[in-house]
Amino acid sequence: MQNLIEFFENETNKKINIFKYSNQKLKLNQKLVSFNNEIYIIETHEKFSISNPSGYFYIISQQNLDFENLKRVLDNLYDDIEIFEYEKFVLLNSSSELDINLSTPEIIESETYTNTLIAYIGKINTIETFNTRISIFKDVIPFLNNSSSSTKFINLNDLTIHKAITLINSEKSFYSLIDFQSIKTMDKNLLHTGISFIENDLNISKTSSYLFLHRNTLIYRLEKIKEILGLDIKTFKDAFIFYISIKSYFISKL
């Protein structure tokens, strides 16, 4: 079978996948063929050229990556996509923006049984932009995996924030402004609550629903943060300081 795939790829100059047909709906780039009394799907893709990227790109990072299994899940979720292994990640490429959101990693995890992080790195048409955004993602992923945030889907704005924080932390004098000792004494659930409150737009109701917390419990925790750190994160300025401080604390632990 591998020899047949290589033959078709050489003849068509396209990436070829061949797999057994199991009554699934065919996509535009798929055709049925009969071989040795079995029915197969031949799927064709334009060969991915790292020197000439084009379209909308997503990076998928999994704790225990099984490429073929992940590809199967993604093919079932989306039409007309290109899926590639790239270093230790998986790249998802499409000619249009996909309906990928905060719930998508959980759907994938339910099928692949491994932790999943997805980053949308935008519409890319040059190798320079591609390399820069991949590099930024590599810079921030250790921090994302180690932070108090439970977010498993990030977009360009999130990458911008995380990159800014890593740049701030490269200035060592910044650490003298953070009360790490007080942060160390705080319960991790308290830190997670504060970060979640900020990531849910400083909205009590939205955060309560997100964390499955009673409104009064959330307010109590916010007051506890204020008591320990002297920051009222219901205000933008204090929320900004808290966010950078907690994220910096987790970076310092890497």
UniProtKB/TrEMBL annotation:
Pfam family, one: HTH_30
Stretches assigned to the PucR C-terminal helix-turn-helix domain: 190-247
Domain of life: Bacteria
Signal peptide feature range: none
InterPro entries noted in UniProt: CdaR-like_regulators, PucR_C-HTH_dom, PucR_C-HTH_sf
Name of the protein: PucR C-terminal helix-turn-helix domain-containing protein
Lineage: Bacteria, Bacillati, Bacillota, Clostridia, Peptostreptococcales
